[in-house]
Amino acid sequence: xxxxxxxxxxxxxxxxxxxxxxxxxxxxxxxxxxxxxxxxxxxxxxxxxxxxxxxxxxxxxxxxxxxxxxxxxxxxxxxxxxxxxxxxxxxxxxxxxxxxxxxxxxxxxxxxxxxxxxxxxxxxxxxxxxxxxxxxxxxxxxxxxxxxxxxxxxxxxxxxxxxxxxxxxxxxxxxxxxxxxxxxxxxxxxxxxxxxxxxxxxxxxxxxxxxxxxxxxxxxxxxxxxxxxxxxxxxxxxxxxxxxxxxxxxxxxxxxxxxxxxxxxxxxxxxxxxxxxxxxxxxxxxxxxxxxxxxxxxxxxxxxxxxx
Length: 308
Description:
Elements: H1 2-26, H2 31-35, H3 38-52, H4 59-63, H5 66-143, H6 146-159, H7 172-187, E1 191-197, H8 206-225, E2 233-240, E3 244-252, H9 275-286, E4 290-296, E5 299-307
Parallel strand pairs: 1-2
Antiparallel strand pairs: 2-3, 3-5, 4-5
C-alpha cells in the first residue's frame, strides 16, 4: 500500500506544484474557491458514508474488496478532474484578463496616433496658410501701416496652433501618455497637474508602465467627466529611483462608488469588475508591490508602489 501511495502521490505532487498552485496564487477574485471545494467534498462524504456508514466489516476488509477499490478509483478521479477544470478555468481567466489589458493598451496607442495625426494636419494647414500671412504683412510694411501690421502680428500670434511638445519626464513613453491625457483633460474642462520624475532607463516593462499610467489616468478622467462638481481636477505624482516606483493619481469625484462583497470596484461602463483597477492590481502583484484605492471628501485616491 505504501508503494502504491508513493507511485500515485509523487506525480500528483509535481502536478499540484506546477499547475494547480500557480493557478491558486494568481487567482484574482477568490470566489471560485469559496464554493467549488464543495464538489470534491461531496464526493468523499458520499463515499465514506456508503462504505463505512452501514457496514460491520473493518476498514481494511472493505478496502480489499475489488468493487470498493474500483469505486474509490472513480471517486478520486472525479475529484481530481474537478480540481483540474478549476485550475484550467483560472489560467484561462488570467489569459483573458491579459488580453483585455493588451487590447486596452492598443486602444490607447490608437488614440495617441489619432492625436498625433491631427497635430500633423494642423501643422500642415498652418504651413500652407503662412504664405498668405507673409504676403499681407509685406504689403502692410510697404504701405507703412505699422499700427495695422502690429495689430495683425498680435492676432496672427494668438491664432497660431500649439505645436510644442509637452515634456513631463525623461521617460518618453510615460511623458507621451501624460501629454495625451492632458489634452483630453483640458478639452473636458479639468484642471490637470503633473509632477513626474521617471527616468528613461527604468527597469519596468514598457507595456506595464503604459497600462499602469493609462488605466489610472483614464479612470480619473472618467470620474471627473461624470462628476457634477464645477472645480474638477486631477493631480498626478510619480517618482522612480533604482529601487521603486511610486505613483499617485487623485481626482475629484462626488458620484457613487460601486463595490462588490469582496471590496473590489465594479465598472460603471460594463457588468462586473472594472478591468482598469484589476489590471493595476495585477501589475502591482507582478512587481511585489501594492495598489491602494480610497475615496472620501469628494476625492478618489489611487496609489501604487512597485519594487524594481
